[in-house]
Amino acid sequence: MASHRRPKQPSRARVTVLTATAAAAVALTSQAAHADPKPTRSEVKAKVDKLYHEAEKATEKYNGAKEQQQKLEKQVGALQDKVARGQEELNTLRSGLGSLAAAQYRSGGIDPSVQLFLASDPDTFLDEASALDQLTAKQTESLEKIQEKQRALAQQRKEAQDKLGDLADVRKTLGENKKKFQGKLTEAQRLLNTLTAAERAKMAQDDQRASRAAGDRVELGNEAPASALGAAALQAGATRVGKPYVRTATGPNAFDCSGLTQWAYAQAGAQITRTTYTQINQGTHIARSQLKPGDLVFFSNTSHVGLYAGNNTVLHAPYPGAYVRYESMNTIGSYQAAVRI
Predict the structure, then answer these.
(1) In what order do the strands lie in the sheet with 296-299?
(2) Rounded to an integer, what distance in angstroms lies between the CA atom of residue 273 and that of residue 99?
(3) Is the separation of the CB atoms in 311 and 223 below 8 Å?
(4) What are the pLDDT digits (tens) for 162-191?
(5) Within 13 Å of residue 332, how many CA atoms lie on the same side as its CB?
(6) Which residues, listed in sequence order, are joined to residue 252 by a DSSP beta bridge?
(7) Residues 6 or more apart in contact with residue 186 via CB below 8 angstroms
């Protein structure tokens, strides 16, 4: 006869473990279902392009601060040289006055007025009207030269100190803007790293191919150039189509936006400044309706510049990761101003 035993009930501990395991599995499944999907290549490109535009703004400010730093360094150097030469001249004058005192001592004693000078500042000495009566014409001339030289040196030292203060401020600005664009570029690279190597290579190839194709099919019309200078600058810039954007680069094989416009005008024989923020003040401001090939066109709060090429098209170095190309003004950014060099 078969035995009928009651099935053994699972222990409380085992039930608890099974329940917890099931709950965890459900939670993980739910999280997986609601996790953000991996961004597509086009989504990554859009985000990276935005970061590159933001990095370009900081790069232009960095370029401006760098240019200012170089000017200040030259000015400080010139002032310091002037101070050094002035100090040598002052030492020579003082040495001459010391020789005069020595001669007086050998002849029976030092003139009290010379003693006073050697013991204190010449300004104080010359302020004592009674002391002037004891000076010879030669002594008076020597002391006045020393006083004038000391005053000039004091002014030059102050100017040098002020310039050094300005230089310290500019270096601080340089560091801040370098940190900004490096941060944007790092974030862009982080996004790019979410793609495979093949996807990144394809993105770069597509962008370069699009740049070259745009140059081949661009319709610039037959607009007369702004001037022979503008036409020459635009012609020089056109030879750079397909060259990569590289921050702070000024050519001939890589450019940032203002580096391209500066290089193009240099090939035409005109020297313009380095950054968008200074280039905008170098020529005659014109209305958008007056644009002609060769004019400079500024976008996005003066953080970007290109060469007007005709038919509402600009030749420019867009942003990191892109290449020099022709592009419709409608797709670049908010129009800011136009300048004719």
Answers:
(1) 284-286, 335-340, 296-299, 304-310, 313-316, 325-328
(2) 54
(3) yes
(4) 877 787 787 787 778 778 877 887 888 788
(5) 30
(6) none
(7) none
